[in-house]
Amino acid sequence: MIQRILRGRWLYLLLAAAVLVIYTVGLPVEIVTTVEEPAQLSRFNESLEWWPKEVDAVAVRDTVHERPLLGVLLAFLSLFMGGMLVGGLVFSWWSLLSGRARSLWAFSGRRPPAWSFAELGRIMALMIIAFSLLPLIRFAPPVLALGLSPGSHRWIPLSALLLDALLVAAIFAFASGKGMPAWRAVGLSPRRILPSLAEGFKGYLVVFPWLFLLLFLTVELIRFFHWKPPLEPIQMLLFQERDPLVIGLLVVLSCVIGPIAEELFFRGVLFAAVRRYLSRGGAILASGAAFSLIHTNPVGFLPIMLIGSLLAYLYERTGSLAAPIAVHILHNTFLMSIGLVVRWLVME
Questions:
Q1: How large is the angle between the packed helices 301-318 and 193-225, nearest 10 degrees?
Q2: Cβ pair 88, 209 in contact under 8 A
Q3: Where are the domains of the chain?
Q4: Burial class of 175 by CB neighbour count within 10 A (0 to 12, 13 to 18, 19+)
Q5: What is the CA radius of gyration of the chain?
Q6: Cα 193 to chain centroid, rounded
Q7: Does the CA dihedral 112-118-122-128 come out positive or negative?
Q8: What pTM, to 2 d.p., does this model score?
Q9: What is the structure's pLDDT at 26?
Q10: What is the tens place of the pLDDT at every residue in 69-80?
């Protein structure tokens, strides 16, 4: 019964009609006000800078001395970045000299579980409808019970977490109707987890220097053309929010829940659907481009596409989402750690 509803048309037509009626008739005044003035984010747009115009080296050293934990984190991140850069170049050079580079295009032979574009479209439709209903969900009794005031920024990460949870639930709902365990239908396999994780780390190690080069070239192009890229709400919150709960929610969203939900969708569903019609390389590039586009960050399009392509490659190579999920979590945790250290070191 549930599968017939999910795979039919009436559910989506009724939900779309409900959204259309709600926005045609008009939202309640208090909801419209909240949507149009999202919790003082306009103030962030005017004042936020990625980096101070002048950095006082003495003040930075004093801050590190006053906060030993900050010094430890800074040293660890520096060692990690340096190790990944050098290690990636050395490992790549060794692979070329030893002939092991030829094995990089060797794959598990297990095709991803079959997903159709119809299923992909239905999942996307559910998420678009859910996003459209967020202003109403914001004023639902369970949400109001959390004590969120109209000016609270907590709703921003909470709404993103809610959408990720709905995405995971929708994917598993469709997966449960495929005649196999749902976890297998989304590409999760308990077999060979450790070898898959090892493959994931090697792939990330090889790609890391090229990712760093793309980021460096992107930053230099931005400086050359004097372009100020638009800021995302999460970036604004990370560098100026004072509420520790908001920062904690951002960390959980970026480093745990977000990567898992995105891998289930982009690799478990989207890549599997595209793979039915494109070659291996074409599907990897197409899913990487889609992954980058959905992040709505034109500045980081190429670096994000590179990461997305790597994650699709790892899924195809290992036949399991274990490696893509682990690499995604590692990458996001590294970036979030840099952001938190910069905030702690310079912004505060």
A1: 170
A2: yes
A3: 66-347
A4: buried
A5: 22
A6: 22
A7: positive
A8: 0.86
A9: 59
A10: 888 888 899 999
